Amino acid sequence: MSTRKLALSDEILMSVEKPARYIGGEINCVYKKKDEVSIRFAMCFPDVYEIGMSHLGIQILYDMFNSWDDVWCERVYSPWPDLDAVMRREQIPLFALESQEPIREFDFLGITIQYEMCYTNILQVLDLAQIPLWAGERGEDDPIVIGGGPCAYNPEPLAPFFDLFYIGEGETQYAPMMELYKKNREQGGSRQDFLQACAMLPGIYVPSLYTTTYQDDGTIAAFSPTKEGIPARIRKEIVSDVSRTYYPDKPLVPFMQVTQDRVVLEIQRGCIRGCRFCQAGQIYRPVRERSLDFLKEKAIRMLESTGCGEISLSSLSSSDYSQLKELVYFLIEETQKRHVNISLPSLRIDAFSLDVMNKIQDVKKSSLTFAPEAGTQRMRDVINKGLTEEDILHGAGQAFRGGWSKVKLYFMLGQPGETDEDVMGIARLAERIAEEYYEIPKEERNGKCQITSSTSFFVPKPFTPFQWAPMNTAEEFLRKAYLVKDTMRAQKNQKSLRYHYHEADVTMLEGVLARGDRRIAPVILRAYQKGCLFDSWNEYFDDRKWKEAFEEEGISPDFYTIRERSLEEILPWDFIDCGVTKRFLKQEYERAMAGIVTPNCRMRCSGCGAAVFGGGVCFENTN
Amino acid sequence: MKIRIKFTKTGHMRFIGHLDILRYFQKLMRRAEVDIKYSEGFSPHPVMSFAQPLGLGDTSEGEYVDIEVQSTESSAAMLRRLNEKSCPEIRMLKYVQIADETRRSNAMSNVAAADYQILFRKEAPDESALQAMLAQETLVVKRKTKTKEMETDIRPMILSWELGEEGLFVRLATGSTANCKPDTLIEAYDHFRGVTPPPCACHFHRLEMYACREGLFVPLYQLGEELL
Ligand code: SF4
Asked: What is the distance between the alpha carbons of residues A465 and A277, in angstroms, rounded to a whole number?
């Protein structure tokens, strides 16, 4: 390994920022002899190394692929703009970190698509790898390019760039796919033969085998397979028993500091809550918990094999994990013994979590986090966020008396049905929390309090009850942000309140990409050709170039963002079956507009459709 | 109990910066289950003190870190444990116990000199130019600090030199009182010859670090004792 030759020369490595991004060789990274494997798989996270290395999904799949003797899975990330420029100038093909060999020589390039703002980075990766951008132009020797991750639930804006998409959780269908690949190769089959065979696998979507026609008004007339026998609907894949599946004992340990410098314990998949704005809450249904024994064992093994100084729980709503107390108290004991920190995100604030936080962090320095997502109870009913003002004030009050003085609040602006009252409600809620603090006698509190509110702008996502909803315009978003700000400033405790909001332009683009169709692909390509890259990074996002790209392609972003879709319209992602039915989503949209709350899966099943997978929370009480 | 570890940093690890090396050792200590002393408070981290950071891109077979442990096995056993959990390009060479003395006596404050091998990768070194430069009484270089530019005479900091087949071997004063880095010497050499070299013309490889004891330079590990 130490004689491994690097793809980049010393001159290049010494001229770019953070050369450690490109050298591989991290602790627990996997080396195999290339002549001893039959398949080479490059796993890509299309963002910079520090972000990509922090992603749990890749660690799970990396471990899974490499547990198979005849596959060698390596990693690749987006080269930062400084290296990007050098690679283009010197025609250096993009390489995998482990072998340092060009990606274009691999059998597969799997790209995880976690957010819309990485779409131009996907083109960068293909381009630098010297793989044709359009799937249709790839030859027999090019890698098969696979897309996965949450954005694959509406793959259409990226459809022409991918050979296939994997819809759902990666643990289930890659083994049969690798078998198909080997068989096809042995039989002398072509790329096309392989893709056709893959189209028959559950969860696999081969975009070139489907076609879309449009109506005069621009909406979809029909979406259908172009060949007989190809399935018209594709159901997502999930792991039914999450305690008997792949999970790394030895996660990779980067040399350089990455965004998440810790081991991650995914305690469950899915969420029982059904917040109506949340895509993850729908597409990962039903909730499946990992067993306590599984988690205890993995926690210890990962801490031992990595030496990490921190362990973090991961899930959409940790408080809903049924054995949370046992798990947390076990971890506290283990981590104290090992001098390791523990971080517990997405915990509901209550007596238990306050007790735990008291044990694991410095109360004076740490802050409490609430995500009310909307400013008034009326609006929280609309979005089905089961967190009441009373919960928040009570939780905050308890914490304040326990010594805390910092609170962080997260909200969204621009959700369906929002009025100015709701918008101002954000500032008022912050004020009421401050009041709660100053009610405590001066001697018993810890100086001033600091209530920080952040708002993001709401983007309707596929497979949510709000998938039909119009987005606010950029002007409307900003008007609302100013309204929050002005309301904050007019309040008595304004000195204890802070407020942050995001830029609106990037949100509008996210809105187009999230609910776009195949006609968006040329716009993405054009924006990329104009130099758009790392769009999720403020300093690189260039709205002007994107606007030009839309104009030059004759595509109106408004059609995708601020237009209200009819409930009858064929949506670009309708062919995907995520378990949750369209009927259920419609019903939820109607209940939202009527302000009716829907109970969570443990209170009462609402028959969303996810029970077809035959496991998880849907069957908890049936045996 | 204070322990001094001597280690290498070679190969691709030359692209790992000093702060990342620190993080690497924090994790290595946990992986190898070294019974190291941790800092107090809510985010405990192993207490370590490194001698003289190496420049990014440079390699070394003479790096040092001091740690404090509550218990330990023999030097040989500890070296085995640490190396088992380390990457091939960071190898522990020595694990010795050093006297507890005062708190200020650590690897960092002990350093007085370091040996370097300077490899000329683009063109052979000009021996007569080197000789002429070093024959001077003084060798003044401009050094920039954050606020001002300073002139320093580095000639007395060049303790010895020898040009061989394998490059230029130098012993340079290193540490808090007088400090000369090998790249400063090479900059002076380029300036003396009036040339602007291509990037990465030289590779710097540190061989050893020394403390000064009664006028003699002693490798840092020799201030400690092997644990049997
Ligand atoms: S079927 Fe019922 S229990 Fe299962 S995920 Fe849907 S609502 Fe929840």
From this structure: 7
Chain-chain contact of B17 with A256 (C-beta, under 8 angstroms): yes
| CATH number of this structure's domain B2-110+219-226, picked from the four choices 3.40.30.10, 3.30.70.580, 3.40.1010.10, 2.60.120.580 | 3.30.70.580
pLDDT beneath 50: ranges in chain A: 1-2, 623
Asked whether the beta carbons of A424 and A375 are under 8 A apart, the reply is: yes
Give the end of a domain, one of A183, A205, A235.
A235
pLDDT at A135: 98
Q: How far is CA A75 from CA A95, A110, A169, A258, A325, in A?
A: 9, 10, 19, 15, 36
Question: Residue A198: its pLDDT value, please?
Answer: 98
Neighbours of A190 (CB within 10 A): 10
Q: Does A340 touch chain B (CB under 8 A)?
A: yes
This model's pTM is above 0.90:
yes
Query: Tens of pLDDT along A300-324?
Result: 999 999 999 999 999 999 999 999 9
Are β-strands A164-166 and A204-205 bridged in parallel, bridged antiparallel, or unpaired? Answer: antiparallel
**Higher-scoring residue by pLDDT: A471, B143:** A471
Ligand 1 center–CA A617 separation, angstroms: 7
Residue in A272, A284, A617 to alter for ligand 1 test, most ligand atoms within 8 A of Cβ: A617
Burial A151-163 (b: 16+ CB within 10 A, else e): bbbbbbbbbbbbb
CA-based nearest residue to A69, from A160, A175, A144: A175
Does the beta-carbon distance from B27 to A303 stay under 8 Å? Answer: no
Residue B199: the pLDDT is 86
Residue B102, pLDDT above cutoff 60: no
DSSP readout, A1-51?
-TTPPPSS-HHHHHHSS-GGGG----BT-----GGG-SEEEEEEESS-HHH
* Residue B105 confidence (pLDDT): 65
pLDDT, residue B101, reads 67
Which ligand 1 atom is the nearest neighbour of the CA of A609? Answer: 1
Rounded to whole angstroms, the Cα distance separating A402 from A359 reads 12
Q: Per the structure block, which two tokens stand in for A21? A: 């991004």
Kindly state whether A482 is in contact with chain B, defined as any CB-CB distance less than 8 angstroms: no
What per-residue confidence (pLDDT) applies to A622?
61
Crossing angle (nearest 10°) for helices A292-306 and A324-338? 20
Amino acid at A211: T
The confidence score (pLDDT) of residue B145 equals: 74
Residue finishing a domain among A235, A253, A277:
A235
Contact A2 B11 (CB under 8 A): yes
Report how far residue A117's alpha carbon sits from residue A338's, in angstroms, rounded to the nearest whole number. 39
* Predicted local confidence at residue A1, as pLDDT: 44
- Atom 6 of ligand 1: nearest residue by CA position: A608
A419 belongs to a structural domain: no
CA–CA gap between residue A268 and residue A422 (Å, rounded): 33
Q: Is A221 a domain residue?
A: yes
